[in-house]
Design a protein that fits this description.
There is one protein chain. By secondary structure, this protein is mainly alpha-helical. It contains 2 helices and no strands. About 60% of the residues lie in helices and about 0% in strands.
Length: about 80
Amino acid sequence: MNTVDSTSDERTVNNVMRHAYRVLSDDEKAQMQAIKDAGLSFHNMLTDIGQGLGSRELSIAKTKIEEAVMWGVKHITT
């Protein structure tokens, strides 16, 4: 599968649902990357503390982190 970096202006080529994107400024690209980096860091922290303990609480927390990143990025990209 071909991939496109999320901060690339080419991110429109592999999207099925959204038919048009606007080109992001360099500041917006940096903001989007920072949100994703922070989300990944938090997600990894929960993975580290929960090794061997597949708790429902950690699973929900990870899902909420993913959701927060999605909405933060959506705010920037719309």
